[in-house]
Amino acid sequence: MELFLTVSAFVFFVGYAILIIYYRQWWQQIPDYQPSQNYNSSSVFAGTMHKKNTTKISIIISARNEEQNITHCLQSILVQTYPADLFEIIVVDDHSTDNTVQIVKSFDKKNIHCIFLKDFVSGAFNSYKKKAIEVAIAQSTGNLIVTTDADCFMDKNWLQTIASFYEAYKPAFIAAPVSINCDNSFLSIFQALDFMTLQGITGASVYKKMHSMCNGANLAYEKIAFREVDGFKGIDNIASGDDMLLMHKIYKQYPKRVLFLKSKEAIVQTLAMDTWRNFFNQRIRWASKADKYGDKRILPVLILVYFFNLLLLILPVVAIFSNTIFSFFNYQLSIIKYWLGLVVLKTLVELFFLFPVAKFFNKQIILWWFPLAQPFHILYTVVAGCLGKFGSYTWKSRIVK
Fold first, then answer.
1. Rounded distance, CA 130 to CA 238, Å?
2. How many CB atoms lie within 10 A of CB 61?
3. pLDDT greater than 60 at residue 50
4. Domain boundaries, the chain
5. Mean confidence (pLDDT) of the chain
6. Distance CA 313, CA 339 (A)
7. Could you say which DSSP state residue 85 is in?
């Protein structure tokens, strides 16, 4: 058994390392987009010089008990350089019990609209956020839908960058970068590192069209594309997945028109979860949709990552009950030393991938924390993946199966 586990762990490591190295290469191949930049014809984005924008945009925010965050979010949108007459903000109140609605209404701006989800649903419902987005799209006037979250804030050129990218390349779906705004606590730094890794993989995989990934805090898609794939029909029974599951549907219809927008000005900042409990609930929620993905190309990646981390969790437990010593070229190696070697190699490979990603997000300084975060990352990956499949979680004061 010990031999099987150690050999399996090595095989999974080799596959994992090769994948991560490819992700790094693909990330670096993505052109850095600037609205005024003219890409040459050899680029994947063969664009034109920036012209006056004409795209009408509807920004949709589903909010539930966000009185602490919604003000900053709306303020950062209202100061956008994009013309105010070309965008509207639709806040969908998801049964808030705090002052979220009052705060939204206090802005008293013509392009801010607040609608109530309770007017469109009755009784228990499994996917409130999908319904909120669906309702907002039905009432929107824009032809480009942009979604973000109430705990997010943006650079002043965020909307301008998205609109210019859309007008230059006419994608049906745009996945855009998201970064966690962390403080000096280990919890927030851990989340920032984990999230930055996911964002790097997102950009690389979407650019190379290996598989589909995105985050609902910073998405844009054509209203007509949403309607042509019947919106959330067929996935509306799944609690999460308003981002990736929709992306998969649109990718199936428009495989060449799903792009990643790599631009620092397009980055959306989001807040870290304030407790470990909330962090785990968030990640369990994300993991719960894994077996529902319409884009099955991502499943081998998920299996590889999960079982590699599972083996790294099992090996030190086995070492406690086993004195097995392996011989490698006359070098005696215990299971625990073998495990430590794999963890070190995993850390080095991931850091190699993260260096250019961290530079893009201007978070190189937190990479010093990465080795310390590694054991926690292995544990959370296994636990969240398991509970996402077989357990339940609490989100926004709702217990979700």
1. 9
2. 27
3. no
4. 1-401
5. 89
6. 9
7. G
